[in-house]
């Protein structure tokens, strides 16, 4: 089976979010970048599928040269080769078009992505690529098993799960508990250095939204502490001050 | 300006988040048509009028009772065409998001999701979207003629002062190809307040010690008409179902009140709750990081505080 995994290069979940350049640029000073946590689930499941029934796993990222250490980490986790499309990933339709252009002639049996990127949290690239390629895109996928050319999936819905069946090829936007995150081992890290990382230039594509400015939420006020023996006071505050009960 | 709003329904009624989307469209000014798909009564649909729609298109095909993503995308794009709508508005949901993404690529419409406020159309079409899992906002200008706006809960206040909407049957063309994906079954809580829709959420963390202690969380939630949530380790260990897991890698909520009991307040948990209007934290450790993100806090043992709090709320409700 030939699998494509699309990964993002995003600030670590504990990173302090700040902006520079008149709030027009993300301040990456001191920030550590990681594979998007949802993409990491997709990658882990892709590697498991390959280990179980053979095939290849290719990782793809649309990003500038800065993302290469993140791509190498995906190779260390078990992907066979990688492609970087050399562009700033600023717009979902643009990113989706790049993925679709690459995938349309590459005959992947399965394209795996994260449920959403944790920087822009769009949750939309998989659906867009699905439409562009004319194949189903399912998200968020919690379970994915393949038998021959049929796949059985569980998708999270509000208040529960939905079970689906469909034929390959398709796109899955993944989340836990589809697989456990994999930590690269020494052998993986060594072999990642010599795996192929191809850099290709983007195709020109529509841009649908332009960034004007970033903004931080207003600072949180002081917390009001209430004595554990005086829950009536808390009820009064929730009722009269916060007006939520 | 003609705006189409995709409205979802569950258990025979329109979802509150969808009614908010209708109010959002009405607040933008313009002619608001809603579209509902699948079996639901005409009376239930009229409620969209109160929230601001003048008309509801109803695709009453029972083949579409389950949310088949491709078919829905196809149906809604046809409705946009029929109504001459340039803007599609919808609430964030597990169905709305993937449907909107497909429509976006199908008709070349810029799609922005997680919108937290009304657009500014004084120059261009600017919307404020929540990014970095609620830790920041981006103001973006949508440059395409057609636009799709995915709104976050509480982006606008739900208004219910309109008149009943007229309901019109809509029969789009659907093809077999739209049904390539088979939904074999659904496993869904009924009669519960759904987490993403809830105005109050009561969540428990590892401090609750075990699933046998969730009775007091549920009792407090029931008293408040709230949904129940949990931290990631709690769903990882299987104390609670996965769809209750709140945070960076789980459900993001923005209720009027979020109550965190025995949850430390790790940054990844906070990411899922930081747009709540009010946060109440109950934790026995005064140094728990959650207190610095809270509006109200009690340092104490949950096993004593929670039953007392439930009793005090019940007393106040009388
Ligand atoms: C990439 C990534 C993504 C993640 N995503 C999420 C996510 O989406 N959601 C999430 O929740 N976590 C997430 N996590 C995990 C997160 O970092 C924390 O480990 C987790 O939130 C801790 O859960 P907890 O607060 O329930 O448990 P703990 O950290 O163990 O805290 C338990 C708390 O209960 C208190 N307590 C104990 N006994 C009592 C008592 N009797 N009465 C009152 N209080 C008591 C303790 O003082 C403590 O503060 C993620 C981590 C990573 C690395
Ligand atoms: N720049 C990118 N490069 C590769 N894959 C991406 C990129 N941006 C988004 N994706 C994929 O699309 C998924 C959804 O992203 P988003 O729609 O931005 O939330 C991510 O989890 C990735 O799998």
Quick rundown:
Chain B: This is Electron transfer flavoprotein subunit alpha. The complex is a heterodimer of chains A (245) and B (318). With 245 residues, chain A is an alpha/beta fold.
Give the largest interface: A-B, 80 and 97 residues
Largest sheet of chain B: 7 strands, parallel
Low-confidence stretches of chain A: none
Separation of the first and last Cα atoms of chain A: 55 Å
Q: How many alpha or pi helices of chain A?
A: 6
Q: CATH class of chain A, anyone?
A: Alpha Beta
According to DSSP, the number of beta strands of chain B is 17
> CATH superfamily assignment of chain A?
HUPs
- What is the count of distinct domains of chain B? 2
Q: What is the overall shape of chain B?
A: globular
Distance between the termini of chain B: 48 Å
Quote the beta fraction of chain B. Answer: 25-35%
CATH class of the largest domain in chain B: Alpha Beta
> Structural class of the secondary structure composition of chain A?
alpha/beta
Strand adjacency order, main sheet of chain B = 7-10-6-1-4-5-11
Q: What level of helicity do the residues of chain A show?
A: 25-40%
Topology at a glance:
The complex is a heterodimer of chains A (245) and B (318).
Chain A (H helix, E strand, L loop, with lengths): L1 E5 L2 E3 L7 E2 L4 E2 L6 E3 L1 H17 L2 E8 L4 H10 L3 E6 L5 H12 L6 E5 L10 H9 L3 E11 L2 E8 L2 E8 L2 E5 L11 H7 L4 E4 L8 E7 L8 E3 L4 H11 L4
Parallel strand pairs in A: 1-6, 1-8, 6-7, 7-13, 8-12, 9-12
Antiparallel strand pairs in A: 2-5, 3-4, 9-10, 10-11
Chain B lengths: L1 E6 L1 E2 L2 E2 L1 H13 L2 E7 L4 H10 L3 E5 L9 H15 L3 E5 L4 H12 L2 E6 L10 E6 L4 E7 L4 E5 L14 E4 L12 E7 L11 E5 L10 H10 L2 E4 L1 H6 L19 E5 L5 H4 L7 E6 L12 E4 L2 H16 L1
Parallel strand pairs in B: 1-4, 1-6, 4-5, 5-11, 6-10, 7-10, 13-14, 13-15, 15-16, 16-17
Antiparallel strand pairs in B: 2-3, 8-9
The complex binds flavin-adenine dinucleotide and adenosine monophosphate (AMP).
